[in-house]
Amino acid sequence: MLKRNDPCHCGSGRKYKKCCMNNADQQPAVVSDELSQLETEMLYNAFTRYQKELTNWVQSYHHVYPDVEESVTETLSSMLLVWLIFHKPIDEEESTIFDVFIESKVKKLKRPKTIEIVQTWKGTRPAVLEVEQVEELVCTSIDLLSGDRYTHNIPKDHQETVQVGSTIIGFPAQSENHYAFIGPVISNIPEKTDKMKETIASFNHAQTNTAHYIKKWPQLLSALLAEDNHEAITVDQFNWDNDLQKETAECLLKGLRDDQQPPEIEILALQKWQAFATGQQPTIRKPEVFAAAIEYALQEFAPVSATQKALATKYGVSTSTISSRSNEILTALKDTAS
After folding, report:
1. Which residue, of 17, 35, 184, 240, has the greatest Cβ tally within 10 A?
2. H or E element that contains 173
3. Dihedral (C-alpha) 120, 121, 126, 127: value to the nearest 10 degrees?
4. Per-residue pLDDT tens over the stretch 247-263
5. What does the pLDDT read at residue 18?
6. Cα–Cα distance between 275 and 292 in angstroms, integer?
7. What's the Cα-to-Cα distance from 70 to each of 56, 84, 168, 306, rounded to whole Å?
């Protein structure tokens, strides 16, 4: 129990007797209200002051968007905007939109607790949470990307979906008593959790560091939202100029399936190989070389990751060959896109 001369629980920095002691029953959750207001101001500031930059950045990721309903595409774009606010540098000092906002705003804040909490928002990262426990409107969840555990609120309008075993995709940030979410949230029923885990595992079987998931968030989010409605892809669905191009495609498809990559990754990989093969007409002496190079180059376009060393072992080729051929492929594909 607070004593008269203790710091007030509202975070004002004043003594309890000179702050909330006489109206404790009526005292609103001032810190939570201030944090909510700061979130609103931050998002509004970003969407107005940096509208052109944010629009161009989001559009630059449209090539990774899955073939889904328009409402899902809108949600994906909204979640990318939050990611950009916290992680996209906007100047030579590597400052983010959040950094610029909070630097000017924190000087105007009076409540020490609010200042302390909002400063922890820096670098707020995306999370894919699996709910482990639910108690009233608060959950305990584990982040499938980092392994961290969070105690957080159940996002508004998601009470029916969120239960033990559900997944929640969003940006958890510290609030007054536990974590809350900044920006949009996606929740899924428990029956979809295994698919989410498979997608995350296939996204990056070589590395599992959080920094990589943050960097590749647009691709990962796209894979998580993609509908699992693709029929099994075959190389015969594509037109090949010669047998060696087709043989390379078969080698590539087998390599992707050995790693249990999802159908949308298979399709994209074959599309990239066809675009390069038909456009450049490379001399193919060993199909495994170009299959490995395409898979390595695919990291620039899709939620996959593999080291040259791992691919060299997998396809029986050298790392130097993968390096030179993948650079050749990326240069050609970028020239075609431009």
Report:
1. 35
2. strand 172-174
3. 40
4. 999 999 999 888 777 77
5. 62
6. 16
7. 19, 21, 20, 32
